[in-house]
């Protein structure tokens, strides 16, 4: 039995495959346009840039996506915000570190003297042993007057006594 090829059925299949391939290309093209628009919205607040990026991909297709990928901002707005927060945290950490009044060197909060110039930074409380700043007249932790301060000068200390 010879196999007969009907040219009209082959034309129908080719037409069907061409339509499926064209629909796939159209869906890919629209997907790239939408992806570009969403991506540039996450990277820029300028609406004109949003429109231009989407138009670039809509008009030029794959080469437009390549050009967009080359020109797009490297970070999203959220990444930029996180980066800014990290920088501010680092700057705050650097700024909050105490400085020696004698030599200007970086010190720690729990140091009594500067290791570089031997300047006195804090004094210990005679009762609880916690460190107090030099100008303090009374320990804020246990309400003990600092050495050399008269007891009458710290009348607020009476308020801390239990009744």
Counting DSSP E segments of at least 2 residues, the number of strands comes to 2
State the end-to-end CA separation.
118 Å
The oligomeric status of these chains comes to single chain
Calculate Rg over CA atoms.
37 Å
Largest sheet: 2 strands, antiparallel
The neighbouring-strand order within the major sheet is: 1-2
Q: Assign the structural class, choosing from mainly alpha, mainly beta, alpha/beta, alpha+beta, or little secondary structure.
A: mainly alpha
Topology as a string of helices (H) and strands (E): HHHHEE
User: How many domains make up the 3D coordinates?
Assistant: 2
Mean pLDDT: 86
* Beta fraction: under 5%
Percent of residues in helices comes to 40-55%
**Number of helices in the DSSP assignment:** 4
The unreliable regions are none
Large-scale geometry: rod-shaped
Fill in the keyword field for this structure.
163 residues, mainly alpha, two-stranded antiparallel sheet, 4% strand, rod-shaped
Structure overview:
- This protein has 4 helices and 2 strands, in the order ααααββ.
- A two-stranded antiparallel sheet has the order 1-2.
- β1 and β2 form a beta hairpin.
- With 163 residues, it is mostly helical.
- Helix content is 48%, strand content 4%.
- The chain has 2 domains: 69 residues, no CATH class; 55 residues, no CATH class.
- The model has no long low-confidence stretch (mean pLDDT 86).
- It is rod-shaped, with a radius of gyration of 37 Å.
